[in-house]
Amino acid sequence: MPDVSLLKMLGRRLFTTLCARHRLRVPERVPCFCYSVVGTNNDQLLRQQIDSNIQTQDDQHELRQMLRTIVDTHLANGQIFFVPWANDRAILTLLSPFKQLTAQGVSLEFLIDACTKSADLFVTLTKNGREAIKKFTIFVECLEMTYEDAMRFYAKRADGLDSVSADSIQQRLSVFLGRGILAGAQLKMLVKRWPDILFMGNPQTMDMFWEEISGFFAMSDMKKLMLNSPQICLLDVEEIVEIYEYIYFHMGIESDELTESTNWLNLRLEQIMARHEFLLKTGKYTFPDPKKPQLKKENPTASRIFDVSDLEFATKVGCVSHEEWIVFQDLRKLEELLSEKERPYERVLPAMRKQFERKVKEAVEKEAGEL
């Protein structure tokens, strides 16, 4: 029977000789990780792979703890979330969007705070995390936000933003980007003014609206209108055109002044006509005359006429009591009921504007201008 110790010694020498000939070396075995015989020059790569695997396991452990903290906090507040803790594959899927956010620099502490304060945000990230990350990225790239800002913004409007896809949000923003609004601070100001623009309306209809009214406004005025009143593109274009024509032809207010007002589009045509007629009766408004610029200076601005409450309009703009303004409105409504006019005001073709202005001036000169 051969000596066992001698055989082991011969085996070690043979193995060492073979390794030296092929410049191979067996690395130190690490429990729980697969390993292979690699070249001497790749030892550093192997160590990096081992470190990466260890780091990945540490990250997954931290993310699991984060998920458990969020679920436990909601449970303490009376809201139950069922999580498949025993299903590793399902847990990894749930953690995937959180892992992407941490890769973008979002801290675990922020994720815990945001998801415990907003159950809607937590549900969005766990049910449709991939789509949510796309939306966050759009906000970051187009609206000059951080990922933390994007999550806070989303949490406040989760119901509306959950109802649309990331692609449709991008299409809505592209409507404004395609008409001169710059990505970043300008687009952020527009969305801040009316956040619902991200999920309300049809992108094609919105773009057609801006195309329809582009003939009334210069490019600079169009941009100002978009920034101050982006929600206008969700309204009926025919109603807006009718209101604009009255303000432009019958009140003599130019488009550059009108864009300074943010409330004119929220008023009905009857309300605008009532305010205009009331100011004419009280002598506080005169149809502008290019030959008499002082008249325009004495007129209240469009924002003073349209952007104030009824009380302020009567007392500060019309310089009468609120009760007189109420009586005037009641009498005007009665006149409308008795009137047989098909249209509330006379339509004016652009080519007939000068002739119409002369007729208005002649009528003003005949009236006493007293209420």
Low-confidence stretches: 21-40, 48-55
Instruction: State the order of secondary-structure elements, H for helix, E for strand.
Output: HEEHHHHHHHHHHHHHHHHHHH
Question: So what's the overall shape?
Answer: elongated
Q: Level of helix content?
A: 55-70%
- For the termini, the CA-CA separation is 131 Å
Q: What is the CA-atom radius of gyration, in angstroms? A: 35 Å
Strand order of the largest sheet: 1-2
Largest beta sheet, briefly?
2 strands, antiparallel
Query: What is the average per-residue confidence, as pLDDT, rounded to a whole number?
Result: 83
Structure description:
With 371 residues, the protein is an all-alpha fold. The chain has a domain at 265-371. It is built from 20 helices and 2 strands. A two-stranded antiparallel ribbon has the order 1-2. Helix 2 (43-76) runs parallel beside helix 4, helix 3 runs parallel beside helix 6 and helix 5 (119-127) packs across helix 6 (129-142).
